[in-house]
Amino acid sequence: MKLAKFMLSMMMFAATLSTHSAPLVRYFELTTEPSQQAAFDAVGVHNLSTSIETENGTLAMYALKHSEQPNLNYVFEIYQDEAAYQTHAQSPQFKQFVEVAKTAVVGRKVVETDPQFLAEKAEPLRITQNQLKVNFAEVQVKPEWNAQFKAVVLDEMQQSLAKEPGVFAMYAVTLKNQPNEWRFFEIYADENAYSAHRASEHFQYYLTATEKMVADKNVISLQGGTLMNKGGMHFLAK
After folding, report:
1. Are strands 69-79 and 58-66 parallel, antiparallel or unpaired?
2. Which of 28, 79, 191, 214 is 20 to 30 A (C-alpha) from 102?
3. Which CATH number do you get for residue 94?
């Protein structure tokens, strides 16, 4: 009975996201003082885990490191709306994080986005010692091809979530006021799941179909860190 109620609530949650205003999605690039990295990590785990558990409108939070630059941190956040973010910003765990960040963070970049596709498997993620495969891709699309690219990539991502058990979450956003600047955040069970994804028919079709549409592409492998979501999200921009 509890499982049935949980699945029903997730279905209602996904439907709500699909029919109402877009969630608030932003990410941060935070450079930390190496000697303060451990303190930054610890307060981040507390902030993310507490927020996901106690804030209804905080939908997903991820904090990871660049695989080749361990003091370059990427933090991805998804809120139901601006009001949900303001609730989080007033929380004691966030204020504690801010206090530590004042000395730990020496470089900060905030990126505002327009969500295009946000989807997760139904089971929530609660990971504080990440062993999953996580990629962050920056893709610049030729402006004249942007509409066609959107159609192809969003179809590919929907197929990936539906057909591949090793794909845990996929998010596609565009930068504010730069609709041809795409960003993708993807979570896989492991390297084998990622390899299987790349070999899939739908991904191979995406590569072929969009080859002439893409002006530039950069894929960043992320490691370590904290992965938290409520599970079951599904949002598709019109």
Report:
1. antiparallel
2. 79
3. 3.30.70.100
Per the CB < 8 A criterion, the answer to whether 183 and 174 are in contact is yes
Cβ contact 104:33 at 8 Å: yes
Residue 149, token pair as written in the block: 């690219």
Distance CA 167, CA 163 (A): 9
Give residues with Cβ within 8 angstroms of 229, minimum separation 6: 52, 59, 60, 61, 62, 78, 120, 124, 125, 169
- H-helix segments, the chain: 2-19, 37-54, 82-89, 92-104, 146-163, 191-199, 201-210
C-alpha closest to that of 150 among 118, 168, 135, 172: 172
What pTM was estimated for this model as a whole? 0.90
Look-up: residue for tokens 């002439």?
212
Cβ-Cβ contacts under 8 Å for 179 (sequence gap 6 or more) = 114, 146
| Cα–Cα distance measured from residue 5 to residue 153, given in angstroms and rounded to the nearest whole number | 33
Quick check: helix, strand or coil at residue 64? strand
The tens digit of pLDDT for each residue in 119-173 reads: 999 999 999 877 899 999 999 999 999 999 999 999 999 999 999 999 999 999 9
Residue 196 in contact with residue 166, Cβ under 8 Å?
Answer: yes
Domain carrying residue 168: 2-236
Q: Which residue has tokens 């041809």?
A: 180
Q: How many domains does the chain have?
A: 1
